[in-house]
Design goal:
This protein has helices at residues 14-22, 52-73, 101-111, 146-153, 182-186, 190-199, and strands at residues 6-9, 26-29, 81-90, 93-95, 115-126, 129-141, 175-179. The chain is of the alpha/beta class and 205 residues long. Strands 1, 2, 3, 4, 5, 6 and 7 form a 7-stranded mixed β-sheet that branches. A hairpin with a 2-residue loop joins β5 (115-126) and β6. α3 crosses α4. The radius of gyration is 17 Å and the shape is elongated. The protein starts with 5 loop residues before the first strand and ends in a 6-residue tail after the last helix.
């Protein structure tokens, strides 16, 4: 149990920070490496034959495990560690964060006029155990013109988000229907997150 009802968030996503604040959950950031020179703490490369569900769950649990070890190595106060990962899946294909404008345009072209899945996995590592849940939602995009896609991809919005869009941003005007968790599509399903954190000893009214 966390003595001060605070958790560590092992994510640099501003959306996840906003969602935790919205839920009234106290947190401190505990960030992992994601760039050279020493390379990332957790590889996000999809393994051969790995399903989207297995991929997002594995990456999230590895992040939670590495963050827990980092907490111990840095001799930080012992608190539950929350990690999360989100992936967009279209016809079985995992769509990560676009590397450039060409890739972002290709992703939005693929999503336009179709329904895709958004998988967000959360994992909590704490003193007496571990918990992990993967939440799935479906998002339907309206048909989009080439000009609409190009205009959106000329902004900064697509480039730090799985699938090349953020539901909480300008892309909301393209989305005709969702089935599932709005916060899960943003990157942190709050209902499931609160359930798991309660099991880890965090008091959430």
């Amino acid at each position: 149990m966390s003595a001060d009802n605070t958790i560590y968030l092992a994510s640099k996503s501003p959306r996840r920070r906003e969602l935790l604040q919205q839920a009234g959950i106290e947190f401190e950031l505990l960030l992992l490496r994601d760039k050279p020179p020493r390379g990332p703490d957790v590889s996000e490369v999809v393994l051969p034959g790995e399903s989207p569900e297995a991929y997002v769950s594995r990456v999230t649990q590895e992040k939670a495990e590495m963050a827990w070890k980092a907490m111990q190595m840095r001799r930080l106060p012992a608190r539950p560690v929350l990690a999360a990962d989100t992936t967009v899946v279209m016809n079985g294909q995992i769509l990560g964060k676009p590397a450039d404008q060409q890739e972002a345009i290709a992703m939005l072209t693929l999503l336009a006029g179709h329904t895709h899945r958004v998988l967000t996995s959360i994992a909590v590592h704490y003193a007496t155990g571990k918990q992990a849940i993967t939440q799935q939602s479906e998002v339907t995009f309206a048909a989009l013109s080439t000009a609409q896609i190009a205009a959106y991809c000329s902004t900064a919005e697509p480039y730090d988000k799985a699938g090349g869009y953020g539901i909480q941003g300008a892309a909301a005007r393209f989305i005709s229907h969702i089935n599932g968790s709005y916060s899960g599509i943003m990157g942190l399903p709050l209902f499931e997150t609160c359930q798991v954190l309660r099991q880890a000893g965090i008091f959430i009214p």
